Please model this.
Amino acid sequence: MTDDQSFEEFQRRLLDAGILVGAGVDGLYGRSRDFEAVVTGVINLVDDWGHGLGATRLDFPPVVWRGTFERTNYLESFPNLIGSIHVFTGDDRDHAELLRRLDGNKDWPELLTPADVVMSSAACHSLYPLCTGTLPAEGRRFTVLGYCFRHEPSIDPARMQSFRMQEVVYVGDPAAALAHRDDGLEYGLTMLERLGLDMEAVAANDPFFGRAGTVLAAGQLQQELKMEGVTPICSVERPTAIMSANYHQDHFGVPFAIETADGKVAHSACVAFGIERITLALFHRHGLDLGAWPAHVREALGA
Amino acid sequence: MTDDQSFEEFQRRLLDAGILVGAGVDGLYGRSRDFEAVVTGVINLVDDWGHGLGATRLDFPPVVWRGTFERTNYLESFPNLIGSIHVFTGDDRDHAELLRRLDGNKDWPELLTPADVVMSSAACHSLYPLCTGTLPAEGRRFTVLGYCFRHEPSIDPARMQSFRMQEVVYVGDPAAALAHRDDGLEYGLTMLERLGLDMEAVAANDPFFGRAGTVLAAGQLQQELKMEGVTPICSVERPTAIMSANYHQDHFGVPFAIETADGKVAHSACVAFGIERITLALFHRHGLDLGAWPAHVREALGA
Model:
């Protein structure tokens, strides 16, 4: 069976069971009550871990200030995945032209202007502006949750255009950042294995754009900056990343002017959980009937 | 005290207490753990009501298919509030130009093209395509939750650019739609009063755009299609709408080709809860220390 056939089959089973509902375009779905019950359980498990580490929890809306976004360097690395929000600022006459274009199936969005906000590409982006300045000696830790947008329409149910990412983030000195990344990888793998998933840790790279991206990806792999926790969803040969643990070095410390207590550029690390992907992996593993899942899994999720 | 002073004072108190966190632009905030605990409690109360009515629960992501959006007539009525998502589809050379513009503080979003998705303006919009065709005799009922975007930057903390809306929606025959609207208004007011809020029901109108909008608003008011549940947040003279109950007549039945079992155009009604506004009203009413709220309120919210 090809990947495409596996994706289509799993998607069809989810849609037939009403766990996901199609929303007109690839990678966009409504979520059922059962799906959301599992989502809530997973979010609470990650939040409990962050809370135990003394992390401040912050939930952000699905959009981020354009000024923040432009400083993250996301446009350099992943221009093909971003979403910029454009709005109408015209008068009655402009509105009439907008509606004429809409009726004539012409390009009405051309009349819009960029807003102050863009789609959030990663949950942690909203945190770094809060850290600008000098950190306390122990650094800072956050648990952050938010919807992210990635423009990559796909029939793979695990590759949604709009999905929730929850991250436990450390900002501070390099050694502690690296330790956070490593401890978080271990914690996440154990947590997901307890939920019944077969997990494997692999060194990975982000899907950097274009020719220059090939070099960036090789460097990231070679330095082992990104580790992923993968599990089979649609394919055993090509398991899906449902969590990642990333050491950013000074990638955010520099543009957001974050300093450690001893005056060095801050490093950061995040342990990121793909909430929809984890939820789909659990439905794949335990079946589409939530009521028939193993009792200890339902108990752990409160679902 | 002017409205602006009231907004600023309440915003400052929320920021000082860490219940909201500024995100660089008016109307955009991070939410604290306590804020989200109340949010979850409110969502569960609305969901329980919908569940009791036999509603199907569906949660949608913050974006909607452009094809769905264009059929809702939202562009006709509220062009100034929409958000269209634009993406980069170029090659290496286009990417280089994008980065040149970014570095030069020039208009890089000009190089983008409209995506298949736009920001969701109302949670219920995603439901109507699911109803296209002939309904069962009893109609259909949904509880729907999702982030909505409204481009109206404001210092009023209750007027966010990105916020959650939860709606219990009925689609079917006109009499049942009207009854759903009226029953839902009563249920919502009682539910919110039990949480300690002083509620009042008022006939209201949507903020239709432009000159033509004045006529639409007057018609909506005169026919009493929209009722709002209002409560004082920043001002007693100008209370804030935290819920609304709307009879849409055939506004969605016509463009989405929804028919009742006896072959007539379906009517619809929704009872909509502004989750962030309700949460802010509760913090305003009971104080910024969640631990000091009345026991029965915390119990009802599970917070």
Summary: Chain A touches chain B through 70 residues (CB under 8 Å). The first strand of chain A starts at residue 20 and ends at 22.
